[in-house]
UniProtKB/TrEMBL annotation:
Any one biological process term the GO annotation gives: butanediol biosynthetic process
Organism, scientific name: Marivita hallyeonensis
The name this protein goes by in its record: Threonine dehydrogenase
Molecular function terms from GO: (R,R)-butanediol dehydrogenase activity; metal ion binding
Xref: Gene3D superfamilies: Medium-chain alcohol dehydrogenases, catalytic domain (3.90.180.10), NAD(P)-binding Rossmann-like Domain (3.40.50.720)
Listed InterPro entries: ADH-like_C, ADH-like_N, ER, GroES-like_sf, NAD(P)-bd_dom_sf
Entry's Gene Ontology cellular component terms: cytoplasm
Organism ancestry: Bacteria, Pseudomonadati, Pseudomonadota, Alphaproteobacteria, Rhodobacterales
Cofactor(s) needed: Zn(2+)
Keywords: Metal-binding, Oxidoreductase, Zinc
Length: 326
């Protein structure tokens, strides 16, 4: 099969590789659409030791099952494969499973390929009226759904339901969409990139600004750099909540003294539970997350250029979706 292979820092190759082979209890999925995630970019730049080269990246995927009793079923893929038996799994917190595996991290190759093998429990059926390019957004949308749910759960009921989202990429936009689906109408996205900020406002109908000095009770950091953590620390209202999704860099930025004295809740959020993934997929199918027409599509063979464009900061759309069979 053909795949886009990460071969080293800022080095990708579109080439022939050994075809994906299902293990017991798994199904072969013909990948129709797969999104480029921020974590794929981190690996591409050599910033993610969890993703060593050579490796097939990509974990935001949807496609069609080939062979077996599910043959022909259109599915979106939950890329997180938990052990199923540990206390975290038994309490339906699969994202905290210490033995979890994720496609695009060894030992599981990713979905920037024509095929990927996945357990049946990780496959969520997609209705015929939903394009697979939109179904592939279930993964990044679920990340933000999980974060929005945790942030709202931690917010004191006396505080205003208003949010500031740092970062206007797919995760930041998805956080805004999730918050709105959960009843938070006042959401502002801070996005310094002029092209992307204009796209968010004009194509997505979002309130997007280059910077903000307006305090907010809830702040979602969808970037995860020291600078964005410093902004979150400074702008969150006393008694408010910071939900931290981004993995841009490991340290710096938090004003721990202010967070302590002002009793600010900081929540690290990671992926989603299996139920939250299914809930997010259903929200897509029901149209509760909007038209999801803000993606840019390209053939997988053009993925090398897609990564270069993202690296150069010239992509306005929050998400590039690659098609292996284009």
């Amino acid at each position: 099969m053909k795949a886009l292979v990460y071969e080293g820092v800022e080095a990708l190759a579109y080439r022939e590789v050994r075809s994906a082979t299902p293990r017991e209890g798994e199904h072969l999925v013909r990948v129709d659409a797969v999104g480029i995630c921020g974590s794929d970019m981190h690996a591409y730049l050599g910033h993610d030791a969890r993703r060593p080269a050579p490796l097939i990246l990509g974990h935001e995927a949807a496609g069609v099952v080939e062979g077996g009793p599910m043959a022909g079923t259109r599915v979106t893929i939950n890329p997180l494969v938990p052990c199923g038996t540990c206390p975290a799994c038994q309490s339906q917190r699969e994202n905290l499973c210490p033995g979890r595996q994720i496609i695009s991290m060894p030992p599981r190759e990713g979905a920037f390929a024509q095929y990927v093998a996945m357990p049946e429990a990780n496959l969520v059926a997609v209705p015929d009226h939903v394009p697979l390019s939109k179904a592939a957004l279930a993964e990044p949308l679920a990340v933000s759904w999980h974060a929005a749910k945790l942030a709202l759960g931690a917010l004191h009921p006396a505080m205003e339901r208003r949010a500031l989202v740092l970062g206007g990429g797919a995760i930041g936009l998805a956080a805004s969409l999730a918050l709105k689906a959960m009843g938070v109408e006042d959401v502002t996205i801070v996005e310094p990139n002029d092209h992307r900020r204009a796209f968010l406002a004009d194509a997505c109908g979002e309130t997007a600004v280059a910077q903000s000095d307006v305090p907010a009770p809830m702040i979602i950091d969808a970037v995860g750099y020291a600078a964005t953590r410093a902004t979150a620390s400074a702008l969150v209202l006393p008694g408010g909540v910071i939900a931290h999704i981004g993995l841009g860099e490991d340290t710096g930025g938090l004003d721990v003294r202010r967070m302590t004295l002002q009793e600010i809740t900081f929540i690290g959020t990671y992926t989603y539970t299996a139920q939250e993934f299914r809930d997010t997929a259903q929200a897509i199918y029901d149209g509760r997350l909007g038209p999801l027409d803000w993606i840019r599509t390209m053939p997988l063979e053009d993925g090398i250029q897609a990564f270069k464009d993202l690296r150069a900061g010239v992509v306005a759309s929050p998400k590039i979706v690659l098609h292996p069979w284009a």
